[in-house]
């Protein structure tokens, strides 16, 4: 019944890994950001056909400005997601810092630049508090920041009683309203921040630590990485960027509205996921996340231009986001099989 | 006709041939051993046999059914994976019979009493030290391993049981328990497929052996007809000395590390000295506290008490970064949990350890990184299609080589190896012994933690034994016999 061979030893020169021949398309498709970039370009082109007002300088400026605020939060959030953390209080930090800035400038009469710096510091501290609570007491960041989000948002309401603070000094208004060469200042700042953060993520020791921790927390500890220090620092960075977005919004509106940041929580997370950042950590990059943010901003813009009823807008934009994520996942599976 | 007939199966992944034109038979009432080095294609073959992974070419016939158009035939095969894959927060009984409809329980409602009653039968049959209502994470690892085997047999329709290296985290006693079970199943007319690296296990259990090498059949034979040497030759393609000693050829020199009264989680009052250029063996049962002691010395776990002096200077406890800076490195046995960064490339996995060497002002120089990682990949014979390949897609042995390579690149002064050859093929094993010997002769001090007495005898000049969290003996290898060592490990001295 058995193959009754003697212990037969076949000589074997080894099956060497064949260099897989790749055509141009599959090589492009295997680049890390190819999927999201293709989706972005596709949505952009479709939008050009859907509305003649879409690809105009005026409309592009609007998109760039929206993108600037969402983008700043997205950069911070995506760095946290690389660690496998989430901070749901970033929107609340933005609003909180914005109104404190308003109070310092208008009611206290502080020099606007000093007030601005103090508020950025405040944002940094809010983020650090989140990070310290997560690391020292070993809390789950998602749950903790639901709590701190209520605290920061609540203090905001206590300080303002829900009323906007008007009369923000003109010295800082160009930060929100200025647009040299048609590029809104917040957008320029966002790009600048993106370049720095992307450099940190990809090129520095600290960035490698972030990816390492997001991939395998225990192994990172074994490698001698001071994991908690890195985590606290990134929470601080995210808080700082949220405060920056909040202050730019105050400068843009000329008033410190308590509602600033209220809508900045979910779309940065969706943007990061669309851009290829895994919620489990360790995969993706802030640049991909910004691509995701661009997709979301373009979708929200074209829906308005196309004349979708305001009641339906969030249904439509939500559906497109779901489609975009599905497309990404399906295309990845397709690539894997081919 | 054999119960399982595999004819000419082929499988390629991303251009790498994992299996090539492979044919074999599996008979009921026999133990069929799959042997071969890491990456030889054993796991791929098992995945094909269990229907987890479709094959490119060839046919698999199980019980007379061609599996291509009859997927249910795969139900005749039960599979016990190498790593524990139980539900830790569910009870023993629930784990045994999950998913319930396949194990003869109702689809909708499952009564606790009925599964617990049924579970008792399996617990007795497999001699598991647990009660049906206990949670999995409350029982010993070895019993979890046995539950995993028992679970595979609760599938009512199975005829073939595949065990993928089931003994890696078991001690001698438990291995005996498992082997009795396997022999009973064999006598009851089931077919057992047993994957193993360990020669003594292969010969004591197997009826028939199939050896894979680089995805092709390197040989197959009845085990009565061959001896250990033939088998090793088949597995590695060359003669490997099985009993060569790898003890360093130099005398140990001055003391570099002295551990004094170290106590911590599950061990107490550990004191010993490590000298320069020696390989110090640490023997003990799984769970005796060996890994915990080593991880505490390294700073990964907190110490309750005690002190450690390195070159007569006290070192700060509880800080792996300090240990690494002073040249103390620990290579964990838990490669997945403590070693690799799964979704990063081989390059990044190596780079993370040698950041000092590849950065200028904390900025990574990619060119330098590529050059250094390429060198490590070729020096340590790491088989990967590209340095950019994600490390999860490498075989276990190659992952181990990445970890070894990146640690060596840091020029360690003291190296703690925790079961470095667990689940590793003979050729790589010997390679690791050779590296240890060479390092020791260059003046590195090595602590080798192992469950294999033979391994300790071959490599270590001095052996410490641990029983229940305390040191139970210190022996000079050449003056002690294996029986005394085993006695010390089992706590009978």
Describe this structure in words.
- The complex is a heterodimer of chains A (338) and B (493).
- With 338 residues, chain A is mostly helical.
- Helix content of chain A is 70%, strand content 1%.
- Chain A has 14 helices and two strands; from the N terminus they run ααααααβαααααβααα.
- Chain A has a two-stranded antiparallel sheet with strand order 1-2.
- The longest helix of chain A is centred in the last third of the chain and has 28 residues, at 310-337.
- Chain A is globular, with a radius of gyration of 24 Å.
- By secondary structure, chain B is of the alpha/beta class.
- Chain B has helices at 42-50, 92-97, 112-125, 141-153, 172-187, 199-205, 228-236, 290-298, 320-325, 335-339, 346-351, 355-358, 366-379, 396-408, 426-441, 453-459, 482-489; strands at residues 4-13, 16-26, 31-36, 57-62, 65-66, 77-80, 160-164, 191-195, 208-213, 216-222, 255-264, 267-275, 279-284, 303-310, 313-314, 328-331, 359-360, 363-364, 414-418, 445-450, 462-467, 470-476.
- A six-stranded mixed sheet of chain B has the order 6-7-8-3-9-10, with helices on both faces. A six-stranded mixed sheet of chain B has the order 16-19-20-13-21-22, sandwiched between helices.
- The longest helix of chain B is centred in the middle third of the chain and has 16 residues, at 172-187.
- The chains are: A mainly alpha (338), B alpha/beta (493).
- Chains A and B meet through helix 9 and helix 10 of A and strand 2, strand 10, helix 7, helix 9 and helix 10 of B.
Quaternary state of the chains: heterodimer
Net shape of chain A: globular
Question: What share of the residues of chain B does DSSP label as strand, in percent?
Answer: 25-35%
Radius of gyration of chain A over alpha carbons? 24 Å
Total helices of chain B: the number is 17
Integer-rounded radius of gyration of chain B: 24 Å
Largest interface: A-B, 39 and 56 residues
The 3D shape of chain B can be described as globular
């Amino acid at each position: 019944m058995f193959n009754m061979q003697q212990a037969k030893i076949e000589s074997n020169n080894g099956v060497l890994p064949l260099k897989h021949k790749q055509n141009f398309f599959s090589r492009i498709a295997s680049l890390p950001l190819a999927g999201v970039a293709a989706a972005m370009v596709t949505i952009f082109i479709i939008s050009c056909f859907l509305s003649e007002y879409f690809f105009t300088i005026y409309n592009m400026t609007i998109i760039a400005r929206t993108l600037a605020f969402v983008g700043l939060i997205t950069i911070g959030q995506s760095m946290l997601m690389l660690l496998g953390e989430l901070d749901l209080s970033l929107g609340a930090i933005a609003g909180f810092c914005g109104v404190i800035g308003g109070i310092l400038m208008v009611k206290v009469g502080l020099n606007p630049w000093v007030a601005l710096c103090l508020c950025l510091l405040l944002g940094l501290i809010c983020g650090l508090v989140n990070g310290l609570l997560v690391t020292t007491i070993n809390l789950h960041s998602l749950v903790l920041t639901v709590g701190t989000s209520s605290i920061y948002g609540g203090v905001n309401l206590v300080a303002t009683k829900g009323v906007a603070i008007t009369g923000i000094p003109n010295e800082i208004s160009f930060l929100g309203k200025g647009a040299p060469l048609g590029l809104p200042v917040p957008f320029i700042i966002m790009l600048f921040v993106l370049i720095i953060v992307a450099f940190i993520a990809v090129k520095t020791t600290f960035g490698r630590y972030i990816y390492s921790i997001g991939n395998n927390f225990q192994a990172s500890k074994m490698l001698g990485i001071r994991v908690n220090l890195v985590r606290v620092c990134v929470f601080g960075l995210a808080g700082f960027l949220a405060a920056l977005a909040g202050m730019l919004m105050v400068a843009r509106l000329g008033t410190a509205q308590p509602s600033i940041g209220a809508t900045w929580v979910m779309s940065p997370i969706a943007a990061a996921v669309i851009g290829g950042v895994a919620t489990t950590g360790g995969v993706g990059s802030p640049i991909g996340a910004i691509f995701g943010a661009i997709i979301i901003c373009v979708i929200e813009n074209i829906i308005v231009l196309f004349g979708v009823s305001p009641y339906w807008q969030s249904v439509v934009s939500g559906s497109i986001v779901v489609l975009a994520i599905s497309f990404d996942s399906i295309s990845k599976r397709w690539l894997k099989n081919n | 006709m054999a119960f399982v007939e595999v004819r000419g199966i082929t499988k390629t992944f991303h251009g790498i041939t994992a299996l090539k034109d492979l044919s074999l038979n599996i008979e009921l009432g026999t133990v069929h051993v799959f042997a071969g080095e890491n990456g030889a294609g054993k796991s791929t073959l098992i995945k094909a046999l269990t229907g987890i992974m479709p094959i490119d070419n060839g046919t698999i016939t199980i019980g007379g059914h061609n599996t291509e158009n009859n997927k249910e035939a795969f139900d005749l095969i039960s599979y016990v994976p190498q790593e524990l894959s139980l539900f830790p927060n569910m009870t023993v009984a629930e784990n045994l019979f999950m998913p319930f409809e396949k194990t003869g329980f109702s689809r909708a409602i499952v009564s606790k009493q009925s599964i617990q009653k049924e579970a008792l039968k399996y617990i007795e049959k497999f001699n598991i030290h647990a009660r049906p209502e206990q949670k999995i994470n409350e029982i010993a690892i070895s019993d979890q391993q046995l539950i995993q085997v028992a679970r595979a047999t609760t599938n009512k329709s199975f005829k073939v049981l595949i065990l993928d290296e089931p003994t890696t985290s078991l001690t001698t006693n438990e291995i005996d328990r498992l082997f009795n079970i396997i022999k009973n199943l064999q006598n009851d007319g089931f077919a057992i497929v047993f994957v193993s690296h360990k020669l003594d296990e292969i010969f004591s259990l197997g009826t028939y052996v199939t050896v894979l090498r680089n995805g092709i059949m390197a040989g197959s034979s009845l085990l009565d007809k061959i001896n250990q040497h033939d088998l090793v030759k088949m597995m590695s393609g060359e003669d490997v000395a099985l009993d060569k000693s790898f003890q360093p050829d130099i005398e140990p020199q001055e003391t570099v590390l002295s551990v004094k009264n170290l106590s911590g989680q599950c061990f107490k009052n550990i004191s010993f000295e490590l000298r320069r250029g020696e390989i110090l063996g640490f023997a003990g049962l799984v769970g005796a506290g060996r890994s915990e002691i080593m991880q505490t010395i390294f700073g990964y776990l907190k110490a309750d008490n005690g002190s450690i002096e390195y070159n007569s200077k006290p070192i700060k406890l509880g800080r792996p970064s300090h240990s690494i800076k002073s040249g103390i490195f620990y290579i964990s046995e838990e490669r997945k949990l403590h070693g690799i960064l799964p979704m990063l490339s081989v390059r990044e996995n190596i780079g993370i350890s040698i950041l000092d060497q590849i950065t200028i002002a904390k900025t990574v120089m990619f060119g330098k990184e590529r050059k250094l990682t390429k060198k490590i990949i070729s020096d340590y014979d790491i088989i990967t299609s590209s340095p950019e390949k994600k490390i999860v897609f490498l075989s276990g042995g190659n992952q181990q080589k990445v970890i070894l390579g990146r640690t060596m690149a840091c020029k360690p002064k003291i190296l703690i190896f925790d079961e470095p050859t667990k689940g590793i093929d003979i050729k790589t094993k010997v390679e690791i012994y050779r590296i240890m010997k060479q390092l020791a002769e260059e003046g590195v001090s090595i602590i080798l933690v192992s469950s294999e007495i033979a391994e300790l005898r071959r490599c270590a000049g001095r052996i410490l034994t641990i029983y229940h969290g305390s040191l139970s003996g210190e022996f000079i290898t050449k003056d002690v016999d294996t029986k005394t060592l085993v006695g010390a490990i089992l706590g009978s001295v």
